[in-house]
Design the sequence.
């Protein structure tokens, strides 16, 4: 028992040490980000203006860990409306320099500012007057002195206890890249709709899908004037197979909806000869043609509607005229649950 107790104590002490190290790293890097935010100056605005004025693309380059961060920055820029890609500095000296042309702007990453692999690329930008933005921790370095605009990283210690592994510096660089991307995004008025164009697949694409992308339109939509008889409405409901019909007023706007359930609830002598408007629901749940599928699903799944489950929504435009029909099954096929 004593041995087991000793082992438990050792495990507990090890766990505490692990947590202490993790917290130290996170607190170190979090503090550095605060320092970075306070360290920003007019150079950041100059960089934004330089990128905005560029007729070409943003080229990101960096070696080692800076290179990995650079690929992420390029990806973030590209997905938020700023054309960008990554060029490996070593490969650029062996032919890939041709990917960079006049009109582009280069962002070079190097905490030391002295990465040998960057030298040829730096000289290339100087030779062909291609704007160069340097992100470095040393303004006196080659990158710092040769860049048109320098975004300096504050002198913060690496989270590595040896002060060697790029940790704090790469976190600051990545965050600075995010700051550039989001600032450019807001400058351009980049919207969720624009974002969807660059993210058609995956979870993001699904979250940004609009009802107009999956709704039924045209002749497939069960729709008729609210003056028709219930008998004719029943025929249309049966033909279209959605279990409902949208009824329109004389001006073409949505007047109401009749469902299979409405028919059952109003079963009585002479029902089929009545005008459809007599039994329609006059204020049905609807979806707008600008609505996200996720928002439409929320309407269908609203607990307030539990006693009368909604599986279809009429989709209307800004003038309240029906333009389509969305069924729960359409949402499920699109990956929503």
Sequence:
């Amino acid at each position: 028992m004593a041995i087991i107790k000793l082992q438990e104590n050792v495990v507990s002490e090890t766990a505490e040490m692990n947590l202490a190290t993790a917290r130290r790293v996170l607190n170190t890097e979090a503090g550095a980000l605060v320092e970075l935010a306070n360290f920003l100056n007019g150079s950041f605005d100059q960089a934004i203006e330089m990128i905005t004025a560029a007729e070409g693309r943003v080229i990101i380059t960096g070696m080692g860990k800076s290179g990995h961060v650079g690929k992420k920055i390029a990806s973030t820029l590209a997905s938020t409306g700023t054309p960008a890609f990554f060029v490996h500095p070593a490969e650029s000296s062996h032919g890939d320099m041709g990917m960079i042309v006049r009109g582009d702007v280069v962002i070079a990453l190097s905490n030391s500012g002295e990465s040998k692999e960057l030298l040829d690329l730096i000289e290339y930008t100087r030779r062909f007057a291609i704007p160069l933005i340097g992100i470095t921790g040393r303004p006196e370095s080659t990158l710092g002195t040769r860049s048109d605009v320098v975004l300096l990283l504050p002198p913060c210690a690496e989270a590595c206890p040896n002060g060697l592994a790029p940790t704090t510096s790469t976190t600051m660089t990545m965050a600075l890249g995010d700051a550039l991307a989001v600032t450019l995004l807001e400058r351009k008025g980049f919207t969720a709709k624009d974002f969807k164009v660059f993210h058609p697949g995956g979870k993001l694409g699904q979250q940004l899908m609009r009802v107009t992308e999956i709704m039924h339109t045209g002749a497939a939509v069960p729709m008729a004037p609210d003056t028709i008889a219930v008998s004719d409405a029943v025929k249309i409901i049966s033909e279209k197979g959605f279990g409902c019909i949208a009824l329109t007023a004389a001006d073409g706007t949505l007047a109401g909806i009749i469902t299979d359930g409405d028919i059952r609830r109003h079963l009585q002598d002479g029902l089929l000869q009545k005008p459809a408007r007599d039994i329609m629901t006059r204020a049905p749940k609807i979806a707008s043609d600008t609505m996200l599928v996720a928002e439409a699903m929320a309407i269908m799944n609203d607990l307030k509607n539990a006693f009368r489950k909604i599986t279809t929504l009429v989709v209307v435009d800004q003038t309240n005229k029906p333009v389509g029909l969305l069924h729960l099954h359409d949402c499920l096929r699109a990956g929503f649950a």
The chain has two domains: 2-190, 211-333. The chain has 13 helices and eleven strands.
